Amino acid sequence: MSKNIFFKRSDPFLISELFKSNQYEVDNKVFDIKTLSNASSQDISFLDSAKYREFAVSTNALCCLTTQELKKYLPKKCIPIVVKSVLFDLVKVTKKFYPSADLDYPDETLLKSEKSKYPSVKFSNNVLIGSNVEIGNNTTIGSNTIIEHNVSIGSNCVIGSQVVIKNSIIGNRVVVQDGCKIGLKGFGFIPIKGKNIRMPHIGKVILKDGVELGSNCTIDRGSIDDTMIGENTFLDNQVHMAHNVKIGNNCMIAGQVGFAGSSIIGDNVSIGGQAGISGHLKIGNNVKIGGGSGVVKNVKDNSIIMGYPADSLKNFIKDLKKND
Amino acid sequence: MSKNIFFKRSDPFLISELFKSNQYEVDNKVFDIKTLSNASSQDISFLDSAKYREFAVSTNALCCLTTQELKKYLPKKCIPIVVKSVLFDLVKVTKKFYPSADLDYPDETLLKSEKSKYPSVKFSNNVLIGSNVEIGNNTTIGSNTIIEHNVSIGSNCVIGSQVVIKNSIIGNRVVVQDGCKIGLKGFGFIPIKGKNIRMPHIGKVILKDGVELGSNCTIDRGSIDDTMIGENTFLDNQVHMAHNVKIGNNCMIAGQVGFAGSSIIGDNVSIGGQAGISGHLKIGNNVKIGGGSGVVKNVKDNSIIMGYPADSLKNFIKDLKKND
Amino acid sequence: MSKNIFFKRSDPFLISELFKSNQYEVDNKVFDIKTLSNASSQDISFLDSAKYREFAVSTNALCCLTTQELKKYLPKKCIPIVVKSVLFDLVKVTKKFYPSADLDYPDETLLKSEKSKYPSVKFSNNVLIGSNVEIGNNTTIGSNTIIEHNVSIGSNCVIGSQVVIKNSIIGNRVVVQDGCKIGLKGFGFIPIKGKNIRMPHIGKVILKDGVELGSNCTIDRGSIDDTMIGENTFLDNQVHMAHNVKIGNNCMIAGQVGFAGSSIIGDNVSIGGQAGISGHLKIGNNVKIGGGSGVVKNVKDNSIIMGYPADSLKNFIKDLKKND
What we know:
The structure is a homotrimer of 324-residue chains.
Chain A: E1 13-14, H1 15-18, E2 29-30, E3 32-33, E4 43-46, H2 53-57, E5 63-66, E6 79-82, H3 86-97, E7 111-112, E8 122-123, E9 128-129, E10 134-135, E11 140-141, E12 146-147, E13 152-153, E14 158-159, E15 164-165, E16 168-170, E17 175-176, E18 181-184, E19 189-190, E20 197-198, E21 205-207, E22 212-213, E23 218-220, E24 227-229, E25 234-235, E26 240-241, E27 246-247, E28 252-253, E29 258-259, E30 264-265, E31 270-271, E32 276-277, E33 282-283, E34 288-289, E35 294-295, E36 304-307, E37 310-312, H4 313-322
Parallel strand pairs in A: 3-4, 4-5, 5-6, 8-11, 9-12, 10-13, 11-14, 12-15, 13-16, 14-17, 15-18, 16-21, 17-22, 18-23, 21-24, 22-25, 23-26, 24-27, 25-28, 26-29, 27-30, 28-31, 29-32, 30-33, 31-34, 32-35, 34-36
Antiparallel strand pairs in A: 1-2, 7-9, 19-20, 36-37
């Protein structure tokens, strides 16, 4: 079972401790909360939409938060925990396991960088480094940048000035330009009048080898899952990536593009400036999305789309002519 | 008369000192410049649009900059100062009262935070604090953050790293993520060829209890009025709020949304990512605005709108079908 | 021949050293790489589109990267270097002249600002200044701001906090609000699967007298050319300007506007919030562009345009009515 290196987890709970009102035939210990595909036989997971049934049928989870209607997708060995609102109970259970992941409290382990601890790293002025940070050979870190505890950065990276990186695993040859904020908690909460209940964000940000981020980008970490950018994908300035978004390899994302939560983008995708991608979508490989588009539906491989809402380029041009 | 704690005000002027070319029956002393609803009987105010006539009729202002056409909305006790361009004279008068509010000069009172002065506050590294800053119990402030003079922050707040806060009053349990810039002067000036004349910004930013701001947001302070975010309202990353915008309670504002100046947003409003709200609009309560929308008209309570320009969701879908 | 003060240039190459496979009648020394209009008789230039033929016919360049089809636009004295992909060879040649301009490595000359070196400048806390920086009288620099080597800033400027400025020439009375990142390399590269090849950015950012930038703007430097903002032009918060963009005098650019690379904007242009301007366009003088517009074509002087894609305001309103 892989350990969460960024957030302190509570001791395991019995199922009956987590859900007191219910009675379960088996009352095993639950060690962690994970997505359907990542969960082991000691973990709890969650299924809140038929969209994710393919992950449900093959999950190894010990038990799973779900609804009366969706529980049929779970394998026999997985104990269904039927609740009214999966999201609400997900928040409650996640908070039990990770009591301090709902907010980004300042890292108390930060210290001014010491050349002696990282002899092969080039630090500019006033760099702050948390405990257990790993940085590869020949990486440079710009002035006033903050790298919080347990972050790992590969070799030959160029990290700019006034950057914040937390809860992130960063590969080799990664470039992060000035002012980026990486690994902060995302915009996830249950809006209950008078008091929003925040979703703990126990995921991380993964930037694969060769990724480049332009200046002032904001890349939120995952909630239960991770946020990820694939090899050799370049983002321009002021791009916003919400929690759990995954972008494939060799993509080009132009300035001020925004990704709502949990969308999955394929390989070799190019997205023009200021386009927006709604949440929970699947964008195929080799897709081209025109600047300013608003994408609200899944997109097949090799599509060229444009418009608000985005449609095939052919239809977009046809509609323009109709209006002439 | 409430004092402006952020900007130094000149001594009072006689009406005849402010407007030398005009003759007024009464020549009282004017102490301050305020909005129609905030002005007391010692203040000057301004009325530049019939839109604000409801505030005009009940103003307590001693005198008011206005036009020949609009002066009829002012109560008898209020002396009308009729001018050609209300905005131009407003700038001139505001500059007389507040000579240094047109630009954000660096705060010369900033010093490295001292635990001894704020024993119940947790400061991370290199925090800079101006004079007369108040911070409540159990609030944490991230590294490299700057809190300028006279700012007040409540208790149990979590302020991130690389944040700047000036000219702001912040409640309890407020969360400000990394990189936010709060309380800077807004984009207000009179474009005269070859030399723009800047509107002094003597207002502040008010964040009520339980507000949350995502990373790299920019919240400008008010010009004469204040910029305000109501209780329990959450903003995602990279949101831009211009001067004088007021957002109600329990709203959800997604990433990269932009608000032009002086719009007023009700309670329980949700706005999707990258939507834009034009200036001087009134958006009702319980309104839902789709992502990417461009809102250019007032919106009634309980509306669901989408599109560019935004229309009712019903019409938006009808138009889409028409183009199929 | 004007010197590039920001990037170290290699010694001159013979044409035959740059292009080994080709044979040229004359084999002169090439000293630098420049745009068609800036090149002297010792420089190499490039012509990759008929769009730029007016600059080609009058270039003073010694030689020019171009294609079989475009070489006819070059004057007789200019040696055409015919290649398959002008952009690809441009990257190769630029890298030979400027081996370290493809990435923004941290400035190793940064030191904490010293009052003694700049007696007429007002520094706030923790300002970092590189070597050979020039700052004019009565300019103020906010806390935690970084000004890298060889940058020049005029007099009576107000530079905010947490700003980064590199590779830039800044005039008098310029205002830069908190969090701006100015002069970083742009989003230019040749996407080759598995390994993007970065375009060196050897240009700079020029901000003329009286320019104002709102908070958290990102202004990339030019690639071969410069990025420029004309006198008295004001930008609001979170504006993104890509490499080589040129904005004229007395323009008003509202919040969150984005400019793709190499577009040229005239004088007295106003652009509403969140509008996007595509790359390589020419926008005339006195143009008004509505908020949220997506501009994809050249725009004539005195036009008023709006929409996505942007059209004349008249057509935009006609189309709206058609959909009613």
